């Protein structure tokens, strides 16, 4: 892609979108003016990028509008519906997880954004971990709105048990968590402004993570949490480190 003078381009940087208007392209460089972005970019006002690196730097065409805040927040990747070996829908997964299933040969794509397991062992492993409880939560789209207020713009990935504290959950139980909910920037700032809960690290791991869940609910009173969600997702703890097969 070659940048064009007068055209608008956008990219996401750490949850905040940058929007630019290209003002000149000469001698292998594209110069631009910031229309929207983090404080650092707006203070700079202008910038430049090598023409050959423009697309690789993440710039993509965008439309002009009065407010670009709808572009802020986490990138919302496509989700995939996953069918069992019999063709029945059982869950929805991220694009990253879908790529893993495809790369390993555990599933094949039978329609756009629809996978079907062709490895019964993978399906049986999931059924064992969740006791076959593929509830409505498994089919929910989880990255389309703020879990607190329902806003659909400026979404960020919120870790219910913060990353810096997740190490207090021992393995293999750490992998049992459904730890990410999407919240908008305003709700996330409100949450970050609240005092952290006094949760003893010595608490049993389920008590520990549910204390963080309860803190999230107490601060934000979320009304749009995906149906069936809980911070502890696995139901069959005996099967967590059981050998496959």
Automatic annotation (TrEMBL):
Q: Which domain of life is it from?
A: Bacteria
What is the protein's name according to its record? Answer: HNH nuclease domain-containing protein
